[in-house]
Amino acid sequence: GKSVDLNDLSRAPRQYQVMQRLRDANGPLPPDALNDITGWRAALRALTHKGYVVQRALKPEHPVAPSKPHSLNPAQRKAVAAVCGIFGGYRAFLLDGVTGSGKTEVYLSLVEHLIPKGLQALVLTPEIGLTPQLVRRFKARFGDAVYVLHSGLSDGERVAAWLAARDGRAQIVIGTRSAVFVPLIRPGLIIVDEEHDLSYKQQDGFRYAARDMALMRAKRAGVPIVLGSATPSLETLQLARQKRLSRLQLPDRAGPAVAPCVHMIDLRGQPVNAGLTPALNSAIKRHLLAGGQVLLFINRRGYATRLVCHGCGWIAECSRCDARLTVHRKDERLSCHHCGQAQPLPDRCTDCGHADLRFLGKGTERLEERLNKLFPDAGVLRFDRDSTRGKHAMDNHLKAAREGRYRILVGTQMLAKGHDLPDITLVGIINADQGLYGVDIRSAERMSQLIIQVAGRAGRGHKPGEVYLQTYHPDHPLLARLLKDGYAGFVQAALKERRIESLPPFSHLALLRAEATKATVPDQFLGDACKIARGLGVSGVDLIGPFPAAMVRRAGRYRALLLLRSKSRRCLQALLSPLVEALQASKYARRVRWSIDVDPQETV
Ligand code: ADP
Ligand code: ZN
Ligand code: ZN
User: Fold this and answer.
1) Using one digit for the tens of pLDDT, what is the confidence trace for 528-582?
2) Cβ contacts of residue 51 below 8 Å, gap of 6+?
3) Ligand 1 contacts CB of residue 72 (under 6 A)
4) φ, ψ for residue 449, nearest 5 deg
5) pLDDT digits (tens, 9 = 90+) for 252-264
6) How far apart are CA 210 and CA 449, in angstroms?
7) How far is CA 377 from the centre of its chain?
8) What is the whole-number distance in angstroms between the Cα of residue 328 and the centre of ligand 1?
9) Using a 6 Å cutoff on CB, does residue 76 contact ligand 1?
10) Nearest CA to ligand 1 atom 4
């Protein structure tokens, strides 16, 4: 699915033109294809600046020693043979295997078979900065044949990489989301690693789902495509059930590692300090004594989630959002995680002047502080957006973790991705509950994927792993199912719910979002949209809303939503095109920012 933030771009005709060109190309776009648009460079820069267009070429920073392939196990061999058998034609595959089951090794082997045929491979990955290990392994195997596209470089470097892809010098292109558009002279294979990842869906402006684009592109180019994941999205699993996608399974962990043992800790009535229960503490102690490495996962950065006045109960809130400010104690500031606004930490209550201000709620910083107190000799390393801000900070952090200088790693979801940290033997999930009762229709799916991915961090090397999962809701049906029957069990239960509620993959959604500085305008605009939609006389599409966004005010704007739902994608499309046109003429259109998100990944 793809969609456009028409309103935003209609005020910048050149950017609109460039974006349109990208969209129309719907795949490979040669670098000189923009030359006829006057001022395309500035437009592209502006789009890049806004985050609408992201990609750059990465120069090799340090040479990587070539590596020898493993001899594949039977499941891996079967997967490789299935895909190689399709070379030269289209078929979509789901490579479904737990973390550590050897999916990356399968990708490497596929590319090894592909290159002698003079064909090119396109490998999409969610975030290169967070998972340098995928690129490292490809470079170790294929050296200079690997070109990397990601955000953060100049136009010139990007163009150079695109040229190399277009003339075939780049045999392997690894890139994030937007690399799905890279021109390839002899495409032979497309791989989408971690296909379930949310970052494949652009969240702002020109919204396209790179995974769906990749599927379309593979079909058009007549090449096989492999979607890999330990926790495939429900959509992809449904395609597999319908046999529109062949499922290849890697049931076991490759190499010496064995699956970790998962324990649930009931948080109710427990003495908890900075999120740690006595049971988790003793597990940490045990693993440290045994020489293991420990990873603790907490989904909040900062020190505390609230600054509260003990005198009057005042809570520090963002002036531009319906949100509380997070306390960052290291740099003594309060910051809003929604609009980015920051201010110094006050020493008195701004309401009553009381000096007794307390920190409530916990984040990575507080957990780090507590662990340093409890385990002073272990060395605690924190991974979050604050601690990994610099250019090479993430790389350096990972290196320090791998070298074992730190025995305890504390991190947000950025640590849940595909890092290979072989010494980790214990993973603790401080609180699994956020996802279970989230407002978004996909909250539970995301949380389950996260739990499985995080659990996948344990026991990757020769040492067996353990996972401790803390929750206030040990009886939650989806969580219980997840722990009892793994991700497959969760999927079964979740698909049943989705079917009953007629939600994707059993229906198609589009989300019309509107925001304005005046509180009543988004509602008026969406009300108007409803009227227009009904007047268009397209049947088979439900209109749900308008309803306020979960956080009504963000960055000074009031936000509301209208959800469009249909069993038939065709019906939905038949409504959307004329609706978009009519909305541009709506009398409220000038006073709102609006966008239509087809196949929205988030519905809040
Ligand atoms: P995934 O991508 O599914 O997480 P990897 O390909 O990273 O899995 O494999 C996990 C670990 O097992 C890696 O250290 C890898 O080198 C090793 N490995 C993969 N395949 C094999 C194999 N056939 N024999 C031995 N070790 C393997
Ligand atoms: Zn006060
Ligand atoms: Zn804010």
Assistant:
1) 999 999 999 889 999 998 999 989 999 999 999 999 999 998 999 999 989 999 9
2) 204, 205
3) yes
4) -60, -40
5) 776 655 567 788 9
6) 19
7) 34
8) 39
9) yes
10) 100
